[in-house]
Design brief:
Residues 120-171 form the RNA polymerase sigma factor 70 region 4 type domain. The chain is mainly alpha-helical. It has helices spanning 2-15, 19-38, 44-60, 70-88, 93-98, 114-126, 130-140, 146-153, 157-174, 181-186.
């Protein structure tokens, strides 16, 4: 909770044009966001551009943003930018392999909107067993580490890993081929 309170304080400072608050947010999250993007897009320059765009937007909208939880907001912004990158650029065979998408014959140029993909994923996640779903949501939507989840739920890190693996296997097996691009969004580490 302290982390969320600290973030809200920084957001408030940024809203009041405090450059040091913005720099503190950047210093706190930029490296993790870059690594998150780089796990999918193995192009350093593209990842740097994505992170830069997110922080430029964060600053530009500082007076109108109604962010209540900064970390999930920033990671969701990265997911959105990654999706846009893949939507706007043709997938290479290497990209498809890296994302564990087996059927490369699907039409990746479909004009699916991010919100539609997100809803498809959420619908499938809702079908997971309760405990598995809870752990998956903490991991992928709240961007908590396995250790943080284990401590919060008072279970072992291995139990967390097992539940996440179970969730990912379920999602891989239940997503239809035309939804396979959604895997790119949920498999981000």
């Amino acid at each position: 909770m302290k982390m969320i309170a600290d973030d809200l304080k920084l957001l408030k400072g940024m809203e009041e044009d405090d450059n040091s608050s913005f720099k503190a947010i950047y210093d706190k999250y930029s490296k993790a966001l870059f690594l998150y993007a780089h796990n999918v897009i193995k192009d350093r320059a593209v990842c740097e551009d994505i992170i830069q765009e997110i922080f430029i937007s964060l600053w530009a909208k500082r007076k109108t943003n109604k962010i209540t939880s900064l970390k999930p907001y920033l990671f969701q912004a990265v997911k959105f930018k990654i999706f846009n990158h893949f939507r706007d650029n043709k997938f290479s065979r290497e990209d498809l392999t890296r994302l564990n998408i087996i059927d490369v014959s699907m039409n990746v140029s479909q004009k699916l909107e991010y919100s539609e993909l997100d809803q498809i994923i959420r619908d499938h996640v809702a079908k997971l067993p309760k405990r598995c779903r809870h752990i998956f949501v903490l991991s992928r939507y709240h961007h908590k580490t396995n250790k943080e989840i284990a401590e919060e739920l008072e279970i072992s890190v291995q139990a967390v890993k097992n539940q996440i693996s179970k969730a990912l296997a379920f999602l891989r097996n239940n997503l239809q081929l035309e939804e396979a691009i959604a895997i790119a969004l949920i498999l981000l580490n």
